Amino acid sequence: MIIIGKAHGQVELSSDLDTVFRYFADHKKILGFNPLCKAVVETEIPDVYRWDFEIADPRAHPIQLIFYVKQSLQEQVEPQSAKPTDDIISHHEFMRRIFWSEIPIEIEGEPPNDHTFVGLASGQMLLKKVSEQSTFVDVDMRVTVDFQVPILLRVFPEPIIKVMAEVAMSAGMQTVSNKMLENISKDFKFSFVRSDHAGMVKPN
Predict the structure, then answer these.
(1) Are 12 and 191 within 8 A, CB to CB?
(2) In 10 A of CB 39, how many CB atoms?
(3) Closest listed residue to residue 166, CA positions, set 53, 48, 4
(4) Number of Cβ atoms within 10 Å of the Cβ of 87
(5) How many distinct structural domains can be found in the chain?
(6) How far is residue 170 from each of residues 47, 99, 136, 166, measured CA to CA in Å?
(7) Which of 95, 138, 173, 179 suits a disulfide with 7, CB 3.0-4.6 Å?
(8) What range defines the domain where residue 24 resides?
(9) Sequence-distant (≥ 6) Cβ neighbours of residue 24 within 8 angstroms
(10) What is the structure's pLDDT at 200?
(11) What separation in angstroms does the CA of 149 have from each of 7, 46, 58, 154, 155?
């Protein structure tokens, strides 16, 4: 059964755009703020990383999740013509993007156990200059995992299980994302953390 989880968060950091961009481009550093992420390993493929996550099932049994993700950075907007427009110059000066693209990789052989799954993860971070010493960051994440339905839950219709599982996964991802942004903001002097589910803006 394919389960999709989503999360969205926003934070305004008290630092210039270039500094924040370099900070968020540090792949391993950013995921180090995620308590569910146990390892980030560079693969033999350029800019492709393996993420190892560990979560718990409803009976508190550990589940290992493996993702392969490629990071790409958009540091500037290339002009379509030889003469750049004001809009392109504005984007170059005031916006940056970081993309995490899902890489579908099949692992050879059998998984080490029935609690290990290979999923897909993707996301993007949009960084906007607010002022000389303030940068707005917007983060979107999406995770897809093909789980086996536990025997105890097979008495329920699969569509119901799917909805419940996706709600629970998205809620968990959102909670972790909010905590990550709060912890990241501590590396800066002062910031505002926002999320779709928080319903408020709070100072760090």
Answers:
(1) yes
(2) 13
(3) 4
(4) 9
(5) 1
(6) 27, 20, 23, 6
(7) 173
(8) 2-203
(9) 30, 98, 125, 127, 137
(10) 36
(11) 23, 35, 12, 7, 10
Q: Cα(106)–Cα(129) distance, rounded to whole angstroms?
A: 39
Q: Hey, what are 176's tokens?
A: 């972790």
Looking up tokens 């693969």 gives 43
Cβ neighbors of 181 (< 8 A, separation 6 or more) are 9, 10, 11, 137, 139, 193, 195
What span, in angstroms and rounded, lies between the C-alpha atoms of 194 and 199?
8
DSSP annotation of 152: G
Mean pLDDT value across residues 56-77? 83
pLDDT tens profile 112-161: 667 888 999 999 999 999 999 999 999 999 999 987 766 666 667 778 87
Distance CA 79, CA 83 (A): 7
Instruction: Give 118-132 as a DSSP string.
Output: EEEEEEEEEEEEEET
Radius of gyration of the chain (CA): 19
CA 200/CA 30 separation, integer angstroms? 24
Give the predicted TM-score (pTM) of the model: 0.79
Q: Which of 74, 14, 31 is nearest to 177 (CA)?
A: 31
